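Lay summary. Proteins are chains of building blocks that fold into shapes, and those shapes determine what they do. In this project we predict the shape from the chain. Here is one chain we studied, written as its sequence of building blocks.
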Amino acid sequence: MTVQTIRTQPVIETARFDLRPLRPSDAGLIALYSGDYRVASMTRSIPHPLPPGAAEAFVARAVSDDRTEDVWAMDATRHGGPELMGVVALERMDRDQSELGYWVGPAFWNTGFAQEAVRAIASANPLAQTAMFASVFQDNAPSARVLTQCGFAYLGDAEAYSVARGAKVGTWTYSRKLD
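And here is the predicted shape, written in a compact code that computers can read:
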């Protein structure tokens, strides 16, 4: 007998968009936005240039039943907008904690979408965690502001490797206790 555990992700509604689980049709927009060096260079894991099939592989991992990270699309179709403007993700850690990651496509920068998504994920706490952590590169002050405006507290400096940059980059680390 085979026992299969299927983890579902809730749809989280915000004032301007929904955070919904990824679906295969998202791969094209994910490739378009994450293939932009301005996006890739502010992440640890997105390579630049983006190899063929990378977005499809990312979506396949995100919808897998044995995933360690839940990923949501910022989808504004309910409000007449695009079906994908960026993504927000929670990677499970030990001790009921998770690491938050997010990116927004350049066409949607300076709109408050990142802050709205981070605030919604933290408020919904879909993994029922006790704390969330997040790191941003030190040359990405807008993402640092998003975190502090969403109740994350600065913990300290560190370094992380950026695949797109091919180098270690200084980071600021933040945390937020959850209810």
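What the prediction tells us: The radius of gyration is 16 Å.
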